[in-house]
Amino acid sequence: MILSVHFLFGAAVGGALNNPTLGLPIALASHYMLDSLPHREYSIDNVENISVVGWHKAVIDLFKVAFDFFAGLVVLILLLPNSASLPWLILFGFLACVPDGLSFLHFLTKKNNLLTKHLNFHKRIHIHQVKEETSWGLGIIFQVLTVISSVVFLAIL
Ligand SMILES: [Zn+2]
């Protein structure tokens, strides 16, 4: 799923637990749970092949990723600008995005065994190994519903 969905869901789940000791690992684990749902996302082919194509060709994809991440952060800050728990919610949201960051590190190096094992696990958790097997409609609906439920939940925290 896209990063802003992971970010908002991780913040909502972590915040709901009201206990950082539980919230931090659960926010991280929420990434894999969401990725197991059918979803589609924008292409980041040049990021996935950055070690071959180089940084200059991946710039547009990296901007998409950065915009996506910061969109989740901005929505959270706009929702709860005065919340005392905002720093924790941002941390939960950040942790929920970490698995994709680990995949990015793999795309850069391709030689680290731990990162390779993580990427294989990360890919295996997806319901469809080939993302195109999920229709755009279904792939977007799950993400829209996740964002709506996360935003509603965050608003009543
Ligand atoms: Zn992922």
UniProtKB/TrEMBL annotation:
Keyword Membrane: yes
Keywords per UniProt: Membrane, Transmembrane, Transmembrane helix
Positions of transmembrane segments: 62-81, 88-108, 136-156
Highest rank taxon of the organism: Bacteria
Name this polypeptide is given: Uncharacterized protein
Native species: Candidatus Terrybacteria bacterium RIFCSPLOWO2_01_FULL_40_23
Lineage per the UniProt record: Bacteria, Candidatus Terryibacteriota
